[in-house]
């Protein structure tokens, strides 16, 4: 395969030093006709890459899997996962890790092609991805990043010039994904089920070195590592809840050890507030509904604890007790992170015991009156009810009186309170109908203008700028929005 030079690739391969059980050396499968659809220029610069070089034919060849960047060692990673609670052996069926880019800041970031052809873990799949879902992942992960939520990111999207079949033909595409790592809870489950205790230990040592190096010389590094992952996950899910994000497939293979939001499939943002909200067509039981996400998060980290049990203590009973005590911290960390975020959303800069009830009562009114989640908090921020569902609502009016009294207690001036609220209540989220609109224009009409504009307004969600206003409305349809996994 051709090698490509002078673009700034500085690839290392620490993951590939793990036992061979954990990966399979696999080249991307070349495509017919690569075209660059989207390049994340600011991310490229952060990675120390030359934008013009990436845009050149040789640069695009890398994103398409037609050429390898200098120093690449392409592999597919092995993992397992509980998918809707059923345990399965998985692995990168359509993704290839080119290597870890060493950035000018000294970070080590995975560079992965998603949709780059079959691998030994493809099972029945074609190894490919369609343009719509890859652009969707790009849009939503960029929106999450701008919202300040840890997430994998998209560096580039290319089309392949090949059709892929998903019931009907769709244009094929490849997303270049950047992540702190692609270590998953499922990677540990894989080691525990198909490897030895030594494999589990090597994986844990690797994860600690990569994500929690300060734990290396602790007396109990593995217990502390488990607690660190639990803390990252609890805080991450709290951040999702605060902006109304529904992941859609919180399977253990989609839970990142680094604490990033990963694997954007049938995810979506909630419009009307309802804890039962589910978008995914395959989630018939509502396992991954908005209101369930914190519980599922705890369940998922328990699977990590289970996988590293032999590392927690020599005695099995003692190991179980340690694991249970670590997992029990999840709820407290989650609740504290959530309440602290909610306080900021309603402008509270100190803590009173009444706060949790104040927030819960607001949410109950929002649920009852089917108020829009994002717009309700924006209305509070700007002290005007532009969320029509709450206009003239007596319960809401009474709640506002209580809220005003609570605000008075903290003796902070309204301008500083409002500034804090503006920083925690986004003007704009990637609303489903808007995302669908730009995807249709791109995929069906080859028009990328609406995509560019949407990405621009999403890039600073706390700006509360005039050009964001048209994006705050949502269609009052009777048809529920459904997301599909057929990616
Ligand atoms: P996901 O639902 O994207 O988390 O994927 C679940 C598993 O299916 C992972 O192991 C993927 O790599 C694999 N997979 C998804 N789509 C494909 C495809 N088109 N070809 C091969 N493997 C796939
Ligand atoms: Mg996955």
What do you see in this structure?
This protein is α+β, with helices and mostly antiparallel strands and 487 residues long. Helices cover 42% and strands 15% of the residues. The chain has 16 helices and 15 strands. Strands 2, 4, 9, 10, 11, 12 and 13 form a seven-stranded antiparallel beta sheet that branches. Helix 4 (131-146) runs antiparallel to helix 15 (432-445) and helix 11 (355-368) packs antiparallel against helix 13. Magnesium ion (MG) binds at residues 253-254, 263.
Key attributes of the depicted protein:
binds magnesium ion; 7-stranded antiparallel β-sheet; 16 helices; alpha+beta; two-stranded parallel sheet; 15 strands; binds adenosine monophosphate; 487 residues
Helices and strands in order, then pairings?
Elements: E1 3-4, E2 11-12, E3 23-25, E4 35-39, H1 41-46, H2 51-55, H3 57-64, E5 68-69, E6 75-77, E7 80-83, E8 86-89, E9 95-102, E10 108-114, E11 129-130, H4 131-146, E12 153-166, E13 168-179, H5 185-194, H6 197-211, H7 221-243, E14 245-246, E15 268-269, H8 293-307, H9 309-312, H10 316-345, H11 355-368, H12 373-381, H13 394-409, H14 414-424, H15 432-445, H16 449-458
Helix pairs in contact: 4-15, 4-16, 5-6, 5-8, 7-8, 7-10, 8-10, 11-13, 15-16
């Amino acid at each position: 395969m051709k090698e490509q030079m002078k673009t700034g690739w500085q690839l290392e391969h620490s993951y590939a030093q793990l036992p061979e059980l954990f990966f399979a050396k696999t080249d991307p499968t070349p495509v017919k006709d690569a075209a660059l659809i989207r390049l994340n220029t600011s991310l490229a610069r952060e990675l120390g890459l030359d934008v013009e070089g990436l845009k050149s034919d040789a640069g695009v060849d890398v994103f398409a899997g037609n050429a390898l960047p200098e120093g690449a060692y392409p592999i597919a990673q092995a993992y397992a996962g509980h998918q809707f609670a059923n345990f399965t052996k998985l692995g990168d069926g359509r993704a290839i890790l080119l290597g870890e880019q060493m950035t000018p800041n000294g970070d080590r970031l995975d560079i992965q092609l998603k949709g780059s052809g079959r691998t030994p873990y493809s099972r029945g799949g074609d190894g490919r991805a369609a343009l719509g879902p890859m652009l969707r992942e790009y849009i939503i992960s960029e929106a999450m990043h701008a919202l300040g939520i840890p997430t994998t990111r998209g560096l580039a999207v290319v089309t392949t010039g090949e059709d892929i079949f998903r019931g009907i033909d769709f244009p094929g595409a490849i997303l270049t994904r950047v992540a702190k790592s692609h270590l998953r809870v499922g990677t540990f489950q894989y080691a525990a089920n198909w490897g030895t205790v030594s494999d589990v230990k090597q994986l844990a040592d690797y994860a600690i070195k990569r994500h929690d190096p300060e734990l290396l010389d602790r007396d109990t590094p593995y217990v502390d590592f488990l607690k660190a992952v639990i803390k990252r996950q609890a805080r991450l899910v709290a951040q999702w809840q605060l902006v109304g994000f529904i992941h859609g497939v919180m399977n253990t293979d989609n839970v990142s050890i680094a604490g990033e939001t990963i694997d954007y499939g049938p995810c979506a943002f909630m419009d009307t507030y309802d804890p039962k909200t589910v978008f995914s067509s395959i989630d018939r039981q509502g396992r991954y509904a908005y209101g369930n996400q914190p519980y599922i998060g705890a369940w998922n980290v328990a699977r990590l604890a289970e996988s590293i049990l032999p590392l927690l203590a020599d005695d099995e009973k003692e190991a179980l007790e340690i694991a249970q005590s670590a997992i029990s911290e999840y709820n407290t960390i989650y609740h504290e992170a959530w309440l602290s975020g909610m306080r900021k959303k309603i402008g509270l800069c100190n803590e009173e015991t009444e706060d949790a009830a104040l927030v819960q009562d607001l949410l109950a009114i929002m649920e009852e009156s089917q108020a829009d989640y994002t717009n309700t908090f924006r209305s509070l921020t700007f002290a005007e009810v532009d969320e029509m569902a709450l206009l003239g609502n007596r319960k809401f009016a009474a709640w506002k009186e209580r809220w005003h009294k609570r605000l008075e207690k903290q003796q902070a001036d309204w301008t500083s309170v409002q500034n804090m609220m503006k920083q925690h209540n986004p003007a704009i989220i990637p609303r489903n109908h808007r995302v669908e609109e730009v995807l249709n224009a791109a995929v069906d009409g080859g028009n990328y203008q609406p995509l560019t504009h949407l990405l621009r307004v999403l890039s600073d969600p706390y700006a509360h700028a005039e050009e964001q206003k048209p994006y705050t409305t949502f269609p009052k349809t009777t048809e529920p929005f459904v997301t599909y996994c057929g990616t």
